[in-house]
Every structure is written in structure tokens, then in C-alpha cells.
Amino acid sequence: xxxxxxxxxxxxxxxxxxxxxxxxxxxxxxxxxxxxxxxxxxxxxxxxxxxxxxxxxxxxxxxxxxxxxxxxxxxxxxxxxxxxxxxxxxxxxxxxxxxxxxxxxxxxxxxxxxxxxxxxxxxxxxxxxxxxxxxxxxxxxxxxxxxxxxxxxxxxxxxxxxxxxxxxxxxxxxxxxxxxxxxxxxxxxxxxxxxxxxxxxxxxxxxxxxxxxxxxxxxxxxxxxxxxxxxxxxxxxxxxxxxxxxxxxxxxxxxxxxxxxxxxxxxxxxxxxxxxxxxxxxxxxxxxxxxxxxxxxxxxxxxxxxxxxxxxxxxxxxxxxxxxxxxxxxxxxxxxxxxxxxxxxxxxxxxxxxxxxxxxxxxxxxxxxxxxxxxxxxxxxxxxxxxxxxxxxxxxxxxxxxxxxxxxxxxxxxxxxxxxxxxxxxxxxxxxxxxxxxxxxxxxxxxxxxxxxxxxxxxxxxxxxxxxxxxxxxxxxxxxxxxxxxxxxxxxxxxxxxxxxxxxxxxxxx
Length: 510
Known about the structure:
alpha+beta; 3 domains; five-stranded antiparallel β-sheet; 14 strands; 47% helix; 12% strand; disordered N terminus
């Protein structure tokens, strides 16, 4: 027993220096000696080919990553400011250089992390700290019109992949000192900058605290896109329905913040996140506010009718021809029989086959170049549809129904929710093919129960209809005049009852 204890203690003693060495390697100081500092930077970054080391003077050395810093600012502000400066301290450099953001650091890891996002490290011989001059320069595409959320009336500008550009666009829409911006760094390998935005006094504190806590608790290796972050922090990642909105429009994002929602912007992603979001809000477009209220109401009702047709029209056709011939009108029964006389497959196989062809054409059109994709979608649909009817694989009426369902699915203004609508058709068709109308009702009940159980940041997903909140009905499925619409919904109402004033509603509190 004593020998075993001695071996264990010896093993622990052997491990402790290694652990201490690892900790020291993770938290190295800044070496006062120039050669030691350069060697430590090279060892930590594995001597990359784009690591630039410039000797300004015998005592001053600048280290940075090529193409991550603004060369013009480096030459005009940093090099000119440090010219002929041999005897100087980091504090003096801090006051000499005309750069907006300059910090001092005594830790090597922190300094290198700043260098990897576009800072230049200024080292002075004999000093145990380094100057971090942030003169980053990121290459990004220019501002362009939205591609996935296009509209006729309204702003024609979209986010790009630069978080600073996106934040400036939001600031142009909301010139309010209460607009809060909290920054986080996610991903051990990517060190991605994430900004959480909300308007103090309008956004609910519970929602702000929930988002802040979920982001802070994340321990991930990498983060590239905002869609990944939305899936990581939403209430139910196993649900097919999105609980947070991904938008590329700064006007829609700003409108959501003004409505009391919490926004998230991820560096490197052209899509921003808004939450909490309800099921019915996914079928609303920013353009609805710019249209006259009768037209906007008609368009919204048309979208919901299109969603119902997209999910249930093909299953109703399959169930009617498989089990319920009695529901088909007599004038339509004869053309249906003649159309299906040469078809060797049951309706369920026929419907699934055509739905699969539609999805293949859609996916091929998305992956090909724009002009080629449009041609493939149109020509492919016509050629395959005509050939399928002539070969007796399918009927003319089913092709019309499938085409109508495909068109209806594209009326959903949100791309993520549109994908959900298209996917839901397949299990509904299968249930209709096995159990007829009973299968359709089973699919509808499962879908309804699932929606009623969902939430977004703890807020009901099916609000304002369940639970019923009549004050939010004027801007849900229908859109009444703006004078009757409250700016903030019950789901996003903040705790300060004096701050949120609806200026469009005569200055009444909401």
C-alpha cells in the first residue's frame, strides 16, 4: 500500500511541473530582450510566411501580419511617428501616435491575438510590455442590394461580411444613445467577434440576459457564420422550425430592435440574427409596412393560403385518389380517371416522384450560375413534365398540382421557413398515402402540437394567437393601419413603461 501511494505521489509530482509549464506557456510575458520577443512570437505563431518584422530603430521593432494591417496608416502614422525615436517608453508611444485605438499589454497571448485580427505590435528594448496599435484593414465586398430578401418599395442595401460596416449601417438607422452594443469573442481557433445589440428601455431585460448568458456559456472551437450561432443558442435545436430570424436587411434588423427584439451580428457573416421571433412573424416582410394596409393584408393572407396549399394540396390529391373517391366532383372524376389510365404507379409513388424532381431542379438551379440556373429550371421543368406525361409515368393534373405547390412554397418571404414548408410536404404525403384524410389530420395535429410547444427565448412561438394577446392582432396575419398598431408586441415589451412611446399612435404608451 505504501509503495503504491509513493508511486502515485511521485506521478503527481512529475505531472505538476508539466502542468505549470503548460500554464506558463499559455500565459507568457513580454520579453524585454528584442531577440527573445521575436523568437517567442515566431514560436507562438509557428513562423508564418506572412509574419512581417520591421526594425524602426535599434530599440524599436514592429511585428504584424501582412495584409491584415492598413499599410498607409502603418507608414504615415506609425513609422513617421516613431522616426528618430530611440529612447522612448510605451506610455510615451501611446500619447505620440495619432491612432484612435492603442493599448498596452504585458501578456504575449493577448498581444498575438490582437495581432491576428489586424493590430501591429510595437516592442521597445528593455520594456516588459508591448504597444498594440489597431490599424486593421479587412478586405470585404462593397454594399449591394439584398439577394434573398428583395423588395420593390424600401431601402435597397444589404449587410456584408464586415462587422464594422454592418454596425455603421445600423447606427445610421438608429441614432439613439440607448442603443447598446455588447461584444463577445467566440471560437478558440477563429476568435470571431460577435456583437449583441438592443435598445435599453425597449428590449425586455429577461431576453437580453438570456441571450447574453447563452452566448457567454458557449465553449466552441470555431464560429464562421451567424446561422451556426443561431442554432447553438435557440431554445430547441432539434426542431425543424427556426426560432430566430436570419436577415440580410439592415432596415429590417433596425426595425426589429425598435420593436424590442435583441439582435446579434457576427463578423464574417452577411446575415444578422433577431430574436425572439414568432411563427407568424416569419411570414411578414419589411415591405408590408411600406404598402397600403389593404394591400399588405391581402398579401399576408395570400402567403398563409399559399403555405396551406404547399403542405396539404398534394396530400389531399393522394388521399382522394387512394381512399376517398366520393369527395371528387363528378365532372372532375372522368378527367382524373382518363389522366391516370396509363399511369402504372399508385398516387403516393407518383406524387413523391414528381416532388423529388421539383426539389432536384430547384437545388440544381441554386448551385449553377445565375443565367444557367434559370435556364435549367425553366427548360428542365417543361421537358421533364412533358416527357413524364407522354411516357405515362404521371398525369397532367398532378403536374399542375405539384407546380402550384412549388410556386406556393416560394411565396414565403423567409428562406429558412420556406425550406421547412417544402420539407413538410413529404411526410404529409406519406401519411396521406397510408391512411388517407386520417393521415392528413394526424400530420396537422402533430404539426400544431409541435408549434404550440415551441418557444423563442422563452416567449410563446405561436403568439399572439396562443396564448391570445388581442393587442398584437392588428399586425399579425392581417395588417391594419399604422395608427392602430402598437410599436412593440407583448413578447418583446421592456420593463420601463415610460420609455417606449408609440409616436405613430399619438404618443400613447405601449
